[in-house]
Amino acid sequence: MKISELKKGEKVTIRCKHKTLLADMEAQVAGVRSEVVLLELIRHDGQIVDFSSPHVQIITIYEDGKDMPKAWTNCRIQKRTVDGKQYHALAAPKASVKVNRRKVSRILLNKPGKLKISNVPDGVDIMIHDLCVNGIGFECPVKIEEQDIRHLYIQFLDEGKEDDEEEQEIKVEARVVWKKELPGGGLFYGCRLVNAGGNLGYYVADKMREDR
Questions:
Q1: What is the CB-side half-sphere exposure of residue 188 using CA atoms within 13 A?
Q2: CA–CA separation, 207 vs 131, rounded Å?
Q3: What 3-state class would DSSP assign to 209?
Q4: Which SS3 state, helix, strand or coil, does residue 103 take?
Q5: At 4, is the secondary structure helix, strand, or coil?
C-alpha cells in the first residue's frame, strides 16, 4: 500500500523517535496532493509540532480494523500551505509493511473467555489465544459487526489459584486493530487493550514465571 492511498478523514499514528525518546501522536488525513498526504496540523500542548529535525525518525502507522496494521518508515513531515491553509505534509519513500504492534512479551493461553459487545445483551463464548499487558488475540465463532468493533469487553477466570483461593475474574476492554477469517470458520481478532482490571498485570507476570 502506498501512503498516497490514504483517504480523507482517516486517522494515522505518527510515531517519532529520537535516541531513547518515543512519542505517538494521532493525525487526521485532510487530503492527498501529488503522492504527499496532507494532515490536519498536529499539535502538542497547544503548540504546532515541528518535525524538521533530521535526527528524528518518523514512522506512520495505519489501522483499518480489517488486517494487521501497516507502517511506513523513514517518513518526512513538513509544514505546507495549500489554498491558503496550513497542513503537515507527510511523505514516505517506500510502500507500507505489515507490523505487529505488540512488542512486549506475550503468553499463550488457549483458554475460554466471554466476549461482550456494546448494545448486545448476551455474551459470546470465545477462545483466548494469547495475551500481554497491552494486547489480546482471540478466536470468535461469529463476525463482529463494524459498528461494535471498537467496543469489546472480554472476561475470563484466573484458574491457576490454589484450592483454598477463590478464582478471580479478569476483565479487559479492547479495540480491534486487525482480523482474519479462519479456514474452519469463525474469525481471529487481534486487539489492543484500552482498559483492564488491576489484576491483569499480576496475572501476566505469574504466567510468564510459570513458562520459564
A1: 12
A2: 10
A3: helix
A4: coil
A5: helix
